[in-house]
Amino acid sequence: MIGRMGELDLLSHVFKHNAALPGRVIIPPGDDMAMLRLGDRDLLITVDQVADGVHVNCADTPLELVGRKAITRNLSDVAAMAALPVGAVVAAALPRDLGDANATRLFDAMRATAERYDCPLVGGDTMIWDGPLTLTVTVFAEPRGVTPVTRSGAKPGDVVCVTGRLGGAWRDGGADAPHLTFEPRIALARDLAQRLTLHSMIDLSDGLATDLRHVCERSHVDAEIDIATMPTRRGGDTDDTDSHGLTAEQRHALCDGEDYELCFTLDARDAASLPAKIDGVPITRIGRIVARAPGHDVACLRLVRPDGASNAFDASGWEHA
Fold first, then answer.
1. Which of 83, 117, 269, 303 is least enclosed, having the fewest CB within 10 Å?
2. Dihedral sign for Cα atoms in the order 224, 229, 233, 235
3. Contact, 226 vs 287, CB < 8 A?
4. Superfamily of domain 31-142
């Protein structure tokens, strides 16, 4: 929590001032990236952090993977807008005892990762302090002929889809943990946006329950998820369920966060032509967008069980403490 204010409360306060931004702000705060119009070109911008003890545990994580995640975490936001990265800068707060050799390893990993995704690391800032390692990365991107897909276009009747498998990104631990080794879905997002009309899209960093609600809030709609269709990372025993009818694996898929997959919505007619996989990555239909009930100001996420019964799901995913 930030004092007594949660992260989402603080963001809501920020969003209230969007209307006062100048006209060159084409996409204001509230999406995976902001977009500025510079002359006759548009520039997308995102910034995110990786902090020891919050997003990684440096005590048992190779610095190469810490540096990798600092870059790919931002590139997942680029994927969510169906954009292409053009460059990055990093502000690094380095622990006093990190040492020159480790600092070099860290920056080499960030540079190599950025170059792999054609997103050169072009500058930044460093400081030494007594706190934990904190890397703040800003990535710039361009639409390159594809209209950015925002969170605010979901429509009643849309099908909700996700890429990959969800849940348990931290549970395996070690250097193979999915939250460290995930691939930003940049090429897949571009493929989807070029072949179909996507109404909305978001990357799943805070958990499906939280991130799909973000789409619903920005689009003024509600959503239903068919829990039996959620693509969980490990599967699950359906005989052992909670009061929502969820297995442990399904609850992890809804709430764990750090999956860095994509959740998107599109017209049901377009969804009928979705392939089961793109470049080996599964594409799964998990639910639908529905109209918000009259008089309701807060987005509602409902879980639909195989027998057709449904209930509102109030739990959320990961909130940065």
1. 269
2. positive
3. yes
4. PurM-like, N-terminal domain (3.30.1330.10)
Structure tokens at 116: 């792999």
Report which of 216, 85, 72 is spatially closest to residue 144, judged by C-alpha positions: 85
Q: Which residues 6+ apart lie within 8 Å of 172 measured at CB?
A: 178
- pTM reported for the whole predicted model: 0.92
Instruction: Determine the pLDDT at residue 4.
Output: 46
Identify how many contiguous H helices and E strands the chain contains and give both numbers.
8, 14
Q: For residue 185, which of 173, 198, 176 has the smallest C-alpha distance? A: 198
Between CA 167 and CA 156 the distance in angstroms is: 27
Helix (H, G, I), strand (E, B) or coil at 306: coil
291: left (phi over 0), alpha (psi -120 to 50) or beta: beta
Which class for 207: exposed (0-12), middle (13-18), buried (19 or more C-beta within 10 A)? buried
Asked if 31-142 and 159-312 have one fold, the answer is: no
Q: Which burial class, exposed, middle or buried, applies to 251 when counting CB atoms under 10 A from its CB (0-12, 13-18, 19+)?
A: buried
Distance of CA 311 to the CA centre of its chain: 25
Q: Among candidates 175, 72, 76, which has minimal Cα distance to 115? A: 72
Mean pLDDT value across residues 48-65:
95
Tell whether the model's pLDDT for residue 1 goes beyond 50. Answer: no
Is 70 exceeded by the pLDDT of residue 237? no
Residue 235 is predicted with a pLDDT of: 61
Domain locations along the chain: 31-142, 159-312
Provide the mean pLDDT of the chain.
Answer: 92
> What whole-number distance in Å separates Cα of residue 173 and Cα of residue 317?
19
The full DSSP string for 221-256 is EEEEEEGGG--BSS---TTS--TTS--HHHHHHHH-
Q: Are strands 159-163 and 262-266 parallel, antiparallel or unpaired?
A: antiparallel
